[in-house]
């Protein structure tokens, strides 16, 4: 059955979580106090009350306890100040214990029941003594959470090579899988310094246009496949989806010429001595101009 929910976000570019609004109808942009798995938290409403199908819900839904008051806002600001102090204490304690770890951020839960320290490290760290020291200072539950370099960039923020604020800390809620193949399909330089973000991993924006490139490439023969052109048979050496052209190296002259992709017919990858197979491939190619039948040769 459908549920009445409200979308709440706890960080600027964090995930949106659904909560049962109960008797409340908080406007978008307002603060709410909600019950979460780790206790009572302060969140911002990013999607007003709406109805969603049950398959999108992980039951049971936690409830909105109340719309945030002025006192709640002051408590949130106080927690932010405590996080700054906790960060400095964390740095001092890590240095005192000589641990090979980098403190990235500190998060204080709204109800004050827990302080979470986020850090990066090359391997596993034995931080049991560190936790004891921190607990003695703050007299509350302490959690140390190791994160990856992408999450570190999301917490610290910065500017990308485009000159804009990093996507991960401004609006990107989830990290998508990014592969070097995406850079190849978009004919980008494979120089790591040009396609890597400040986190050292492949830039998230390689994913944004990848689906469009994949759809566009379906109209072109594969690079390395044999094709028939107005000037004879050849092999595809490159494609340009913006100009909608195919670069072909001719079989006899070895000259490379660009053709509109609709003037090129795929012959597939066949045995050079198999004349009958070649004729059949050519006939099939004439009926399916531009259809991909060749094999990829990276």
TrEMBL record:
* Region span, Disordered: 267-298
Cross-referenced PANTHER family: PROTEIN PSP1 (PTHR43830:SF3)
- What does UniProt give as GO cellular component? cytoplasm
Polar residues bias locations = 274-298
Q: This protein is called what?
A: Signal peptidase-like protein
Pfam families in alphabetical order: PSP1
Which species does this protein come from? Desulfocucumis palustris
- Location of the PSP1 C-terminal domain: 62-147
């Amino acid at each position: 059955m459908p549920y009445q929910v409200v979308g709440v976000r706890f960080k600027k570019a964090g995930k949106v979580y659904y909560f049962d609004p109960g008797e409340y109808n908080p406007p978008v942009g307002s603060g709410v106090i909600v019950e979460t798995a780790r206790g009572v938290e302060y969140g911002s409403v990013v999607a007003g009350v709406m109805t969603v199908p049950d398959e999108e819900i992980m039951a049971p839904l936690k409830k909105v306890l109340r719309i945030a008051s002025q006192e709640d806002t002051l408590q949130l600001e106080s927690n932010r100040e405590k996080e700054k102090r906790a960060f400095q204490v964390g740095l001092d304690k890590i240095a005192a214990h000589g641990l090979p770890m980098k403190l990235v951020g500190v998060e204080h839960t709204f109800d004050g029941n827990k302080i979470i320290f986020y850090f990066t490290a090359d391997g596993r760290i034995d931080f049991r003594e560190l936790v004891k020291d921190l607990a003695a200072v703050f007299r509350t539950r302490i959690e140390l959470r190791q994160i990856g370099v992408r999450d570190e960039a999301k917490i610290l923020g910065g500017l990308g090579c485009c000159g804009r604020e990093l996507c991960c800390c401004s609006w990107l809620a989830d990290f998508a899988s990014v592969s070097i193949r995406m850079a190849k399909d978009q004919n980008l330089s494979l120089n790591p310094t040009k396609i890597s973000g400040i986190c050292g991993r492949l830039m998230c924006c390689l994913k944004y246009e990848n689906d469009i490139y994949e759809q566009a490439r379906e109209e072109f023969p594969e690079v390395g496949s044999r094709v028939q052109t107005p000037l004879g048979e050849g092999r595809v050496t490159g494609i340009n989806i913006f100009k909608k052209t195919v670069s072909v190296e001719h079989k006899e002259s070895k000259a490379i010429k660009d053709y509109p992709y609709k003037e090129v017919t795929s012959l597939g990858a066949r045995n050079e001595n198999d004349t009958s197979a070649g004729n059949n491939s050519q006939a099939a190619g004439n009926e399916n101009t531009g259809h991909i039948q060749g094999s990829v040769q990276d």
